[in-house]
Specification:
Layout (H helix, E strand, L loop, with lengths): L1 H22 L25 E6 L5 E9 L6 H16 L3 E7 L30 H5 L4 H4 L12 H16 L2 H14 L6 H10 L10 H21 L4 H8 L3 H12 L1
Parallel strand pairs: 2-3
Antiparallel strand pairs: 1-2
Protein name: Rpn family recombination-promoting nuclease/putative transposase
């Protein structure tokens, strides 16, 4: 399900990038350059030596040793990467040592500069912003985000009517309007407003049925599969009974069971 939201945000980010950064992040951008490289989640080299140790003073931490025969210029960043991975996985404090084996004196950087140190991130929640701020935009990709914002003392139905009305006003072509209605319907799941959204779409005479949407159907399939897996793991029901409860074929349940065994 999270992939559905990611697809929408990736599809729309080019349009909302500037208004989002200027209005909500207080960053005035003069020029920007897109980085198209994918960030790798794996590392090429495994740590040389990592152990959870406990000292005679009862201090418990991860001891990480790297043996380095080459005076590697970017070693500090590799150690930083190891640190982040180990910290995320084990949640323990870490002490790192590089044991240099080279003949010449090492010039490796051993400490990060102040601007290289990760000290956390700034958290911004759309719930902290009034829907009216987003609704005032002329950018459809920004307007649909109002469904995730603060409704104040307004009922969800009133906000939905305002969002759909504004989308209808500025979208122009029917095909464009349908695109944003589809995206709005998907984002509405994050606020449990799927039924209300579909009702308002129908009441306003807009032609879009969320149950016919590809992403909606895929989400239904995932929920259906998840329910079947849960029942299979429980091991108290027969294949036929599971198929009956999930309202699917016996063959499909057998297919899921086969995948589960893998």
């Amino acid at each position: 399900m999270a992939n559905d939201y990611d697809k929408i945000l990736k599809e729309n980010i080019a349009s909302v990038f500037l208004p989002l950064t200027e209005k909500y992040l207080n960053i005035r951008i003069k020029r920007s350059e897109e980085l198209k490289d994918k960030l790798q989640t794996t590392i090429e080299k495994e740590p040389d030596f990592i152990r959870i140790v406990e000292t005679d003073t009862n201090e418990r931490f991860i001891l990480h040793l790297e043996f380095q025969s080459v005076d590697e210029e970017g070693m500090i960043y590799r150690m930083q990467e190891y640190y982040g991975i180990l910290r995320k996985k084990y949640g323990l404090s870490i002490k790192q040592f590089v044991i240099y084996l080279g003949q010449k004196a090492s010039k490796m950087q051993t400490q990060l500069a102040p601007d290289e140190i990760f000290e956390g991130f700034t958290l911004k929640s759309l719930r902290d912003y009034s829907y009216q701020h987003l609704l005032a935009s002329q950018v459809p990709e920004e307007i649909i985000l109002a469904i995730l914002s603060d409704f104040g003392n307004k009922k969800p139905v009133e906000v939905l009517q305002a969002i759909l009305g504004k989308l209808k006003e500025i979208s122009g072509e029917e095909i464009v309007l349908r695109k944003y209605i589809r995206q709005l319907s998907i984002l509405a799941r994050l606020r449990n407003l799927t039924k209300e959204t579909q009702k308002q779409i129908t009441d306003m005479g807009l032609t879009y049925n969320i149950t016919e949407d590809y992403l909606y159907q895929e989400g239904q399939k995932e929920r259906e599969k998840g329910m079947i897996i849960k029942m299979l793991k429980d091991k108290t029901l027969s294949i036929e009974k599971i198929a009956q409860i999930a309202e699917v074929s016996v063959e499909y349940v057998k297919h899921v069971a086969k995948e589960l065994k893998k």
